Amino acid sequence: MWMLFLGLKITEWIAVLTFLGGIAYGILKFYHLFNKMLDTLDSLQGAINTITTQNTDHEKRISSLEAWRKNKERK
Q1: 25-40 per-position pLDDT tens digit
Q2: Are 10 and 3 in contact (CB under 8 A)?
Q3: What was the pLDDT predicted at 1?
Q4: Do residues 2 and 10 lie in contact, with contact meaning Cβ atoms separated by under 8 Å?
Q5: Residue 16 needs a FRET pair 20 to 30 A away by CA distance; which of 4, 7, 34, 42 works?
Q6: C-alpha–C-alpha distance, residues 64 and 58, integer Å
């Protein structure tokens, strides 16, 4: 006679546990990938901020060089 627990055979319990394990694995994998994506977006935001800051610094240098050139041409 098959061993029954709560109306399910042992093979059915193995199937249920495997199914639940697969769902848990999928949720954890999604969570891991979502966190990895957030880390990548934070890194990308930092790179964008750095480039923006450097661009502003270069614009200041260029405008000061252009002002110097205009002053030199007037003399």
Answers
A1: 999 999 999 999 999 9
A2: yes
A3: 46
A4: yes
A5: 34
A6: 10
